[in-house]
């Protein structure tokens, strides 16, 4: 059965990458959550998507220029809705301790892409995964495929997924060349035949970001391992309906 992974939590209905969004995903029955991590100036792992805080908080500036304490003084909810005023940027440890108790999958996206180097990011994330004993629940993904290969060098077992938006030729083969065990393509970069081939070759396929009902139906019918969506409740209803038919 295709799993439903909540993109940045239930980001379509709650402020993304906050505990409110993650709790809502769990409440509606999602199989897992996806989140993003950056390094703060004091070397902590902050759960936020953008390299700056401008879009999702009441602050301004680059994540790397804040300490974790400074980041957590910002309001990460009211820019979405006044209903969520006071929501904070979580530390990865906060989410992993919660995930462990809920037995959810957690897809951690490493944001050391473009000009962001974040030395030691891979080691720090793996250390937290080990500390909370959630490796069996964890997928590590990134658009930085060099970084993913480093993750594989550091850990031989953890599930690693290449994120990509280009149309790759035989992406399952490319994934294997750098030690990745699954693929997370943008939905327009993969076909139903490619999904079936990838799954048949033992490479789980989890397309993103699947928000419209017709596309949910199409991909669930194609048999992908999971879909990543901003609207987990909607996707769960689609899956239930398809399973009944």
Question: What does this entry look like structurally?
Answer:
This protein is α/β, with parallel strands linked by helices. It has one domain (3-42, 92-244): TIM Barrel, CATH 3.20.20. It contains 9 helices and 8 strands. Strands 1, 2, 3, 4, 5, 6, 7 and 8 form an 8-stranded mixed β-sheet that branches. α5 links the parallel β5 and β6 (159-164). α8 crosses α9. The mean pLDDT is 97. GO terms for molecular function: phosphoric diester hydrolase activity. InterPro entries: GP_PDE_dom, PLC-like_Pdiesterase_TIM-brl. Pfam families: GDPD. Residues 2-239 form the GP-PDE domain.
Q: Helices, strands, pairings?
A:
Layout (H helix, E strand, L loop, with lengths): L2 E5 L11 H10 L3 E8 L5 E3 L20 H4 L20 H11 L2 E6 L10 H11 L6 E5 L2 H10 L4 E6 L6 H7 L4 E4 L6 H9 L12 H10 L3 E4 L2 H13 L1
Parallel strand pairs: 1-2, 1-8, 2-4, 4-5, 5-6, 6-7
Antiparallel strand pairs: 2-3
- The CATH homology group name: Phosphatidylinositol (PI) phosphodiesterase
Strands, count: 8
Overall pLDDT confidence: 97
The third-level CATH topology is TIM Barrel
The biggest beta sheet reads: 8 strands, mixed
Distance between the terminal alpha carbons, to the nearest Å? 14 Å
Oligomer: single chain
Name the poorly predicted regions. none
> Strand content of the residues, in percent?
15-25%
Domain GP-PDE: 2-239
GO molecular function: phosphoric diester hydrolase activity
Pfam families: GDPD
InterPro entries: GP_PDE_dom, PLC-like_Pdiesterase_TIM-brl
């Amino acid at each position: 059965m295709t799993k439903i992974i909540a993109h940045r939590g239930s980001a379509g209905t709650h402020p993304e990458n906050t505990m409110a969004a993650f709790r809502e995903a769990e409440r509606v029955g999602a199989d897992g959550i996806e989140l993003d991590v950056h390094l703060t100036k004091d070397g902590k792992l902050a759960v936020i998507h953008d390299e700056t805080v401008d879009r999702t908080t009441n602050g301004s500036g680059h994540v790397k220029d804040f300490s974790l304490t400074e980041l957590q003084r910002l309001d990460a909810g009211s820019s979405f809705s006044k209903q969520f005023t006071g929501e904070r940027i979580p530390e990865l440890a906060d989410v992993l301790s919660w995930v462990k108790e809920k037995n959810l999958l957690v897809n951690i996206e490493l944001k050391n892409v473009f000009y962001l180097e974040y030395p030691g990011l891979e080691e720090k994330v793996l250390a937290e995964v080990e500390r909370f004993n959630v490796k069996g629940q964890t997928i590590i993904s990134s658009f930085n495929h060099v970084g993913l290969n480093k993750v594989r060098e550091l850990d031989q077992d953890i599930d690693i997924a290449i994120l990509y938006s280009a149309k790759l030729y035989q992406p399952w083969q490319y994934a294997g060349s750098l030690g990745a065990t699954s693929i997370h393509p943008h939905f327009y970069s993969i076909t139903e035949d490619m999904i079936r081939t990838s799954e048949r070759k033992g490479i789980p396929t989890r397309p993103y970001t699947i928000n419209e009902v017709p596309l949910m139906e199409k991909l669930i019918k194609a048999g992908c391992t999971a879909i990543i969506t901003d609207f987990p409740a909607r996707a769960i209803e689609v899956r239930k309906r398809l399973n009944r038919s």
